[in-house]
């Protein structure tokens, strides 16, 4: 959301910057809409959890406010609808909703392109599928390369309050889908060990989907939030700037002319103008003595 957008449409009274220090808006609609607009099926259980399936049932999203952990969003893709997931992504309950929406928007596009897009495995050295592409948007905004520990490539935000890690080597496929021990992890907070929000992606998650998220994270424009809703941003870390209502447009020359005319005193009515009578003449002054 740009500072130049119509401020009347913003859902908030403050801008949060940098945007990785915002948090969830606590409504799933914006992130569900891109899939529902493409004909995906929505169901829900008695607890209020929502499940969205692609038409071929090969891609599934769960929005799980009543789930077993803080993994609010879980998205899996399958080569075989009845087989294990090919890749899985998780966003916890504090991830800015705009970042999830960026992912689901890219997912809807990839699904329309077919399995070669939404099941495309990352391949080092292949331009469109090189994992490094997912990091480029962050580097372009000043994030710095880091080597926090052996076997991990990372980039860190300029303020040190967000990062993205890529773990090398062999990983447990099941653990990637159910824990934070995944190939990719994006986070914000004081450290990756104590993140306020985090997102994980397994080894075979398509690079285009990851890049859609990092492009959204790297966008320098702030995000609108409500000051009193302190859970909608990372309190004590985020910079809050009041959203100032737009000023009225400068008056045109015609506006100035009309305003001046409205202030001009009205002419006296004709009945109040003194006139000489047609039947009498005014008395002439007498001679001076």
Automatic annotation (TrEMBL):
This is DUF317 domain-containing protein. Residues 54-110, 157-223 form the DUF317 domain. Residues 244-289 are annotated as: Disordered. It holds the Pfam family SPDY. Residues 258-275 have a biased composition (Low complexity).
